[in-house]
Amino acid sequence: MTDKCTGCAESQEKAKELQKIIAKYKDTRGALIPVLHEAQEIYGYLPLEVQREIANQLDIPLAEVYGVVSFYTQFSINPKGKYRINVCMGTACYVKGANEILDKFRTRLSIDVGECTDDQKFSLDACRCIGACGLAPVVTINDEVYGKLVPDDVDDILDKYEDL
């Protein structure tokens, strides 16, 4: 398997970890989703090269692997930042201005939904209801929850993470 860091120790170590995961599940019915979860833990996302390796090793079509990866929202084909921003776009959040908050994040970070900043510090996603409707509109950054937001809150929130 190859990736952007061909030959480097980190890349080789990740490839070895992936092989161990695939071997662990190879003869298990329904192995694809657990393999994808663990592969994403290793790489942070599921690049095409990793999907191809999983397909080859599990002897399933690449189209099937890609179909699962692109269907389930917990899988990503794009790198994620150190700080993963999720703006809830569920009904309660949306009607209370989540779209304006999302726009403020887009503008401030100069990225769109599904993208990551060049320094790999922030990634931005929109998600469906996270079950915190009483705090609408809600944003999560990794495991931190921010509620009852207005667009003017975005700068202060991002400043907190830029200083880390």
Automatic annotation (TrEMBL):
Enzyme Commission code(s) on record: 1.6.5.9
Main EC class the enzyme belongs to: oxidoreductase
InterPro entries, per database record: NADP_DH_HndA-like, NuoE-like, NuoE_dom, NuoE_N, Thioredoxin-like_sf
Example GO molecular function: metal ion binding
Cofactor(s) listed in the protein's UniProt record: [2Fe-2S] cluster
Alphabetic keyword roster: 2Fe-2S, Iron, Iron-sulfur, Metal-binding, Oxidoreductase
Details of cofactor binding: Binds 1 [2Fe-2S] cluster.
KW Endoplasmic reticulum (keyword) present: no
Protein residues bound to [2Fe-2S] cluster: 88, 93, 129, 133
Family according to the record: Belongs to the complex I 24 kDa subunit family.
The protein, known as: NADH-quinone oxidoreductase subunit NuoE
Organism, as annotated: Hominibacterium faecale
Gene (UniProt): nuoE
